[in-house]
PTS sorbitol transporter subunit IIA
Amino acid sequence: MRRIIWQATISTVGENAALFLAEKRLILFSDNAPKDIGDYCITHHDGELIQPVSVQQKITLFGITYSISAIGDVASQNLKELGHITLLFDGAEKAELPGTVHLIGPIPTTLSAQGNITIFEE
């Protein structure tokens, strides 16, 4: 049975957000992100984290489901307090930075300012 840990609705795709795809990264931030930061992020609203993010969970983004392979030490706290994490599509088993969530799966080819971002466990 699928249990949602966090779900948010995508608000905007910053005009420079796609630049980070070349580095296999996407930055998520709540709608409260300062404008200069928001230009590099996918912003979202309505997300409430009900438990810490873990490697037993998955993320669905733009219709693709990714397995979580590693989580930085402050990623859950940042997501809960700021709506902010960096997604890194590299399948690493050890977190590169404290606020990074590493994912197994393809790098998104299209960024859409609609839909949901969902973290869940089965």
About this structure: The two ends are 5 Å apart (CA to CA). The first helix runs from residue 35 to 38.
